[in-house]
Amino acid sequence: MSEASRPIGAEELDASGSGDVGDYIALMKPRVMALAVFTALVGLMIAPGTMHPVIAFAALLCIAIGAGASGALNMWYDADIDGLMARTSARPIPRGRISPGEAFTFGMVLACFSVLCLGILVNWLAALTLGCAIAFYIVIYTMWLKRRTPQNIVIGGAAGAFPPVVGWAAATGAISVEALALFLIIFLWTPPHFWALALVRRRDYERAGIPMLPVVAGEDETRRQILLYSLALVPVSFAPVLLGLGGGLSGLLILGLNVLFLSAAYRVYTIRKGRGAEHAARQLFGFSILYLFLLFAVLMVEQSLGAGVPWLA
User: Fold this and answer.
1) What residues are paired with 51 via a beta bridge?
2) Phi, psi for residue 4 in degrees, rounded to 5
3) Cα(229)–Cα(239) distance, rounded to whole angstroms?
4) How many domains does the chain have?
5) Whether the predicted model's global pTM rises above the 0.85 cut
6) Does residue 226 sit within a domain?
7) Low-confidence residues in the chain, pLDDT < 70
8) Residue of 20, 182, 42 lying closest to 97 (CA atoms)
9) Does any domain span residue 149?
């Protein structure tokens, strides 16, 4: 195994860091954590039934902590390659602010705490789902897929699709087809979202020995896959409306979002050289975040306004 793709060894876990509160917050990947909490909030709010606000807040707090635990454990395992990539070289472990051992302990404590508290305070199905999400992200994606296959993002993307299911399970004590529809939207959204970034950061992944699709299959094939997954996302994005989770407002906004998303994906597919190609990929990456936020937000707003905020007891 090359130095670039080698996981952290046991001897390196004994290093001591000097991190402060800000470093530990960075270790939790707050931007990723925020998106996870937001999609979980939407799953919780649009689920049928009622939920006491205090219990709802406790559920979201546990989900946030679980997402932070995933980020910390991901940085622990990937510390060797993070230092080789411009995008990740300023993270706390490569900078020597936090040792791998400290990150591992911090992540494990947060993971166990979040799952146990969610089970005790809310319900055990939600806790089990959160535990599966953490395990999938760390074991299946980070430890297994990421360094072995260009399909790492496709399969591993399931980890980021769990939060609305956890929110739904917290509110209802069950997992329904509606929750799975929310899961599938994020699952199909992840490849074009992340491959757009991978096109821009291809050299980083080459340097670190990570078999991202642009490195293994080339940029043209990556552009083709981005367009195909974007096309597959369109019909699935309407599933919540068809299942009664949204109405006319949601349908119109989702239609508009899909037109813009497909337009951005098509630009990535057709503009293949020069600064224009990089600009198109950056545009798709940036808009994809807005796309997911607005799609979930309109479902939450329309459901709340139309049903009088049914999740409040």
Assistant:
1) 312
2) -70, -30
3) 16
4) 1
5) yes
6) yes
7) 1-17, 306-313
8) 20
9) yes
* Tokens representing residue 228 in the block: 């195909």
Beta strands in 11-160 (DSSP E): none
Alpha carbon distance 45, 48 (integer Å):
8
**Domain-located, residue 59:** yes
**Residue-level pLDDT at 17:** 59
Query: Does 15 fall in a domain?
Result: no
Which single residue is written with the structure tokens 């508009």? 256
Burial state string for 251-265 with b = 16 or more CB within 10 A and e = fewer than 16: bebbeebbeebbebb
Longest Cα–Cα distance in the chain: 58
For residue 181, give the CATH number of its domain.
Answer: 1.10.357.140
Q: With beta carbons less than 8 A apart as the criterion, state whether 43 and 165 touch.
A: yes
Secondary structure E strands in 30-153: none
30: its two tokens: 């707050």
Which residues constitute the domain of residue 226?
A: 20-307
Strands (E), the chain: none
Mean pLDDT of the chain: 91
Q: Which residues contact 207 (CB under 8 A, 6 or more apart)?
A: 4, 84, 85
pLDDT digits (tens, 9 = 90+) for 20-54: 899 999 999 999 999 999 999 999 999 998 899 99
What is the reported pLDDT for 5?
Answer: 40
